[in-house]
Amino acid sequence: MSECGGRGGGSSSDDAEDEGGGGGGPVGSGSLSPAPAASSEGRLRRWLRGASLMARRRPELLCGAVALGCALLLALKFTCSRAKDVIIPAKPPVSFFSSRSPVLDLFQGQLDYAEHIRQDSEVVLLFFYAPWCGQSIAARAEIEQVASQLSDQVLFVAVNCWWNQGKCRKQKHFFYFPVIYLYHRSFGPIEYKGPMSAVYIEKFVRRVMKPLLYIPSQSELLDFLSNYEPGVLGYFEFSGSPQPPGYLTFFTSALHSLKKGDSGRGTQAVTLGVFSVHLKDFELHSFRLRTRRLSGRGSRAQPLRGMWDPPGLGHEPVSPASAGGLSTTAPPGKPFTYY
Known about the structure:
The chain is of the alpha/beta class. It has 11 helices and 9 strands. It has helices at residues 10-20, 24-31, 35-57, 59-81, 111-118, 134-150, 167-171, 198-209, 218-227, 247-260, 279-291, and strands spanning 104-106, 123-129, 155-160, 179-184, 187-192, 212-215, 231-235, 271-275, 302-303. The strands form 2 sheets. It has a 5-stranded mixed β-sheet with strand order 1-3-2-4-5, with helices on both faces. Strands 6-8-7-9 form a 4-stranded parallel β-sheet, with helices on both faces. Strand 4 (179-184) and strand 5 (187-192) form a beta hairpin. The longest helix has 23 residues, at 35-57. Residues 1-41, 298-339 are annotated as: Disordered.
């Protein structure tokens, strides 16, 4: 027993070196590590030798294997080439607003139809939305609330601008949703960028409906000068015509002011007022207000004179659309006034 363990004389250690490669059990185990790799190579060589021998004896098996491999490669290539055409079509859109809503919902993105019906209405609100957008979903109830109050005077149209087959998605490229556009006849769009709250949206829509503030008395004139800054006053003679010379330009300038200012952009829109009273009374207030500041939230507004006829007794002005249509071009010799 003592001889097999390698603890005796030299002869026993020599025998161990001859059998195990020297060095005892733990050391000899490291020298045997290449054996699995050598055995694997041997098995591979034997398999190749057997396959070569089988191919020489039965060549039809080799031809069948080659044909099967080619067929598998062709099938794989055909499948990969058609993989890009295997696309699941998107589900068709559904109504975003209910059928009882005062808002006309063009949920298939029919932008052309929206532009068509817009031509027949004086004031139009277009609500561009994406059905998945949380802000669009939250603003839906606010738009419906405003429409329930103003649907008899304003056309409310909602357009799905996300569906990839709709014309709105193809023609418009919005970076956010929802988007609200307002049109006053052919003028627009006036984009609303304020809070998505029914109170603020309704207030802005009413300003687009009546961009000019009519001032029928001296008390309202003082209120206008005290509470509206910046503000501009225009004098018109309405006794002979509901749309005197220069009034269309003044009206369009008010819409330009709404488009460029207010609406949450950080700049305040200029409020334009229309005044028509006795010339003597107006001149008295006009010259006084030019030389002193009124008490109130704002400073005085500068009256505009010289471009229009002297004011006189008349009636309340009407919208240019009601008086014969609103044009985006000013009358000859009356260029637009920008602010």
